[in-house]
Amino acid sequence: MKLADLIKTSNNNLFRNKGRTILTILAIFVGSFAINTTTAIQTGVNSFIDSQTESFGGEGFIQAYGKTETDTAQTLQDMQIGRPTKYNDGNTNAMGQPAITEEQIEKFSNIEGIIKDTVLVGRFATVTYVQSTKNDERFTAQLNQMTTKTVHYDMVAGENIENNTDEYQVLLPNNLWTESLGYEKPEDAVGQKLNFVWSDPVTNKLKTYAATIVGVQAPSVINSSAILINKPLNSVLYEENVKYLPAGEKGKVFTVAAEYDYQNYSADDIKQKISEIGLEGMTVKDIMGQIKGFFDAITNIFTAFGYIALIAAAIGIINTLLMSVQERTREIGLMKTFGMSKFKIFLSFALEATLLGFWGAVSGLLVSFMLCSGIDNFAHTKEGFLTAFPTMHLAEYNPGVFIPVILVIMVIAFIAGVFPAIKASKKNPIDSLRYE
Predict the structure, then answer these.
(1) Which pTM was predicted?
(2) Can you tell me whether residue 129 is helix, strand or coil?
């Protein structure tokens, strides 16, 4: 009997007892559905993050922090779960990172590969409130300083801010800000002024710094709710913030950023040199890797549940085939009598197990694809939850990903069918023919 005939016969034998076979396939279906769905979501999220990272740029951008007992990624994770960090004589920030000394900044600037005139010392300014010049509404705001020209943002209107200018410039984080400031469309806000108001803590006098809105960011997983300001505006606001602080407190720095010659120096080379001066370097890809790691951890948990379901299904396959062997004992005796070898009998039952895995895996994949496609289409409607991210797909079904999943499920099913297949192949033909 040829292999094609054997596969056809095995498939027909499966459905002799349709109820039992369908129930076994359903058990495999549950595991297949869970694995394919979580894998597709993981692929979709990672693809979106990769595209965001690519559009964000940052080639040759590196940021350095003071070294802690744990790395920066671990510190961020500790903050998320609420684990306290040790106090270090007032010389650390909220993340427990020590201040960067002037000597370290100088050494950082002189690292071979670092473009010296792009070095930007991180001094973060705050403001009492920002006020619209359109409707006079006032808002609290978190401010971030624009770091380097290699980092760019997707825009819905306008352009990125410029550090090498005397003009105060601001980049709004999203169109929710433009609406709140009184502008009908993001384009209407570009070129208008936004007032940054600082209340002097001693005199209680208000100082206003008017900045030009040069652009509005498009929604992405990278940008935050913070308003981006350029270096001149950050510097003047920072001076207001630290005016009454002791000299030692004014000079505290916790981050330093720069561009490096990424065509001739690798990120690892630069990070190694940064480590040698007592700092810790991070690139844009390092930061995005943390986001991917978070999503991967969640989806991997659900994938693990899928494989647990498959193990339970494998027990069902063993039971189904053992019952099939028992019911077809006389048939096995006849096949042996007519010259069918032990190997072909073994292969016949092993193929039945593999086909159970195949049908369960394929049905799980198809239902997963249809369900996720439907949810993805709804998510991009006006009432959906992905309207802010029009380029993001909830799940991506890459053949290079789901074909191996189907094969793995078939292998698990084959392994489950080995014991019943061996039992069938070892049946004595005379005893089998006498079996009632």
Answers:
(1) 0.60
(2) strand
Token pair listed for 103: 């000597």
Which SS3 state, helix, strand or coil, does residue 258 take? strand
- What residue ranges do the domains of the chain occupy? 3-54+291-434, 125-229
Q: Looking at residues 2-12, what average pLDDT do you find?
A: 79
- pLDDT of 305 > 90? The answer is no
* C-alpha of 215 from chain center: 27
pLDDT tens-digit readout, 353-363? 999 999 999 99
Can you give 24-76 as a three-state secondary structure string? HHHHHHHHHHHHHHHHHHHHHHHHHHHHHHHHHECCCEEEEEECCCCCHHHHH
d(CA 151, CA 288): 13
Burial 276-309 (b: 16+ CB within 10 A, else e): ebbbbbbbbebbbbebbeebeeebeeebeebeeb
Tokens at 292, concatenated: 């991917």
What's the CA gap between 241 and 168, in Å, rounded?
Answer: 17
Q: Give tens-digit pLDDT for 144-196.
A: 887 666 666 778 899 888 888 899 999 998 888 999 999 999 999 999 999 99
**Average pLDDT over the chain, rounded to an integer:** 82
